[in-house]
Amino acid sequence: MALAQHPSVGRIVHYVLPSHSARAGEIRPAIITQVWTDLDHASSPGMCNLTVFRDQSNDFAEPGYGPVWAGSVIYSADNAPGTWHWPERV
Question: Which of 2, 41, 51, 79 lies 20 to 30 Å from 64, alpha-carbon distance?
Fold first, then answer.
């Protein structure tokens, strides 16, 4: 029996770029930097702060080439824009 995954600081997840991004809906790697709620929270499942590793300046309007912060991001298994999910097994 597989154990359920839980968000924790330092875990790598996939972030779905939000609708205001130039590449909305595309996936970027992110690291969890703060966990606010667990996945079973009723209104905000898996809410976390993330450091998102963007594809240079192609993804966001903010200048620069480094990672960007995304705050209070919730988990979605449906890959909704602006959410995070576990990396798919390949």
Answer: 79
Count structural domains, the chain.
1
What residue numbers bound the domain in which 16 lies? 12-85
Task: Read off the pLDDT of residues 63-79 as tens digits, 9 standing for 90 and up.
Answer: 666 788 999 999 999 99
| Phi-psi label, residue 58: left if phi above 0, alpha if psi -120 to 50, beta otherwise | alpha
**Exposed/middle/buried for residue 12 (C-beta within 10 Å: 0-12, 13-18, 19+):** exposed
90, burial (CB in 10 Å: exposed 0-12, middle 13-18, buried 19+): exposed
DSSP letter for each residue of 10-28? T-EEEEEPPTTSTTTT-EE
Angle, CA of 14, 49 and 37, to the nearest 5°: 95
Q: pLDDT digits over 24-50, tens only? A: 899 999 999 999 999 999 999 999 999
Residues 6+ apart with CB under 8 A from 66: none
